[in-house]
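Q: Please design a sequence for this.
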């Protein structure tokens, strides 16, 4: 299926955690579409962040937008039911972090969430072809996972084009998300390479006016060729 309508997904990793509910409200009221929720375990990646209780707290706070849980944890299966119960909409994970990728994807869907696979800069897309029927989202990392505020790795553009072709050939309704170093200055070329779901952390939360940067991003996407 062709590129879907663009979604802006602020990564709350760069939000002020002391005011998380307010930050998420502000960014959604400023035109964001979904909340990107980075889960790091200090094992699969060298950083430690947030888990299911924070996801539930956002739902209890009144957040109704989709929550896009990006698992950077190993193992993955143990935490999937907890995130589903906590209100996750999408749950994506890295194939290197699961012993049984097909089983983990089915587990996510069994718990009523949309499932996705995440590809690190050096991970080939080969897995994708074998589990495409179990997938709702493909996430291409344009930085190495673990931290916000890193520089975009240009090779990700080639991988986005390759993923776009695999998705289009499948005829399935699959989102193509990009994560890492995305900002108003490069989002146009990222969209032109085939992405339709754009994670941005520091580029949004690092600015005072969230609405202004999100609207700049939308116009860059709209004029992308
Ligand atoms: O998953 C990750 C990092 O591992 C990302 O979601 C980052 O949080 C994106 O931050 P920026 O590169 O946009 O600042
Ligand atoms: Fe992420």
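A: Design:
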């Amino acid at each position: 299926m062709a590129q879907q309508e663009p979604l802006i997904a602020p990564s709350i990793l760069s939000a002020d955690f002391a005011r998380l509910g307010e930050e998420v409200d502000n960014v959604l009221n400023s035109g964001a579409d979904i909340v990107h929720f980075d889960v790091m375990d200090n094992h699969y990646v060298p950083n430690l962040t947030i888990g299911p209780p924070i996801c539930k707290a956002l739902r209890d706070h009144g957040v109704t937008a989709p929550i896009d849980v990006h698992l950077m944890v190993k193992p993955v299966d143990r935490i999937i039911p907890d995130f589903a119960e906590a209100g996750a909409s999408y749950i994506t994970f890295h194939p290197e972090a699961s012993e049984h990728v097909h089983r983990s994807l089915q587990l996510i869907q069994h718990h009523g969430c949309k499932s996705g696979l995440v590809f690190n800069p050096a991970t080939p897309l080969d897995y994708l072809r074998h589990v495409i029927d179990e997938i709702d989202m493909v996430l291409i990392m344009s930085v190495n996972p673990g931290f916000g505020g890193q520089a975009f790795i240009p090779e990700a553009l080639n991988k986005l084009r390759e993923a776009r072709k695999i998705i289009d050939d499948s005829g399935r309704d699959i989102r193509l998300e990009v994560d890492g170093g995305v900002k108003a200055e490069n989002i146009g070329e990222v969209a032109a390479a085939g992405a339709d779901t754009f994670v941005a952390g520091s580029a949004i939360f690092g600015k005072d006016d969230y609405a202004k940067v999100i609207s700049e991003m939308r116009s860059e996407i709209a004029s992308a060729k």
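Q: Thanks. Anything notable?
A: The chain has one domain: 7-222. Strands lie at 7-10, 35-40, 67-72, 90-93, 114-119, 137-141, 175-179, 197-200.
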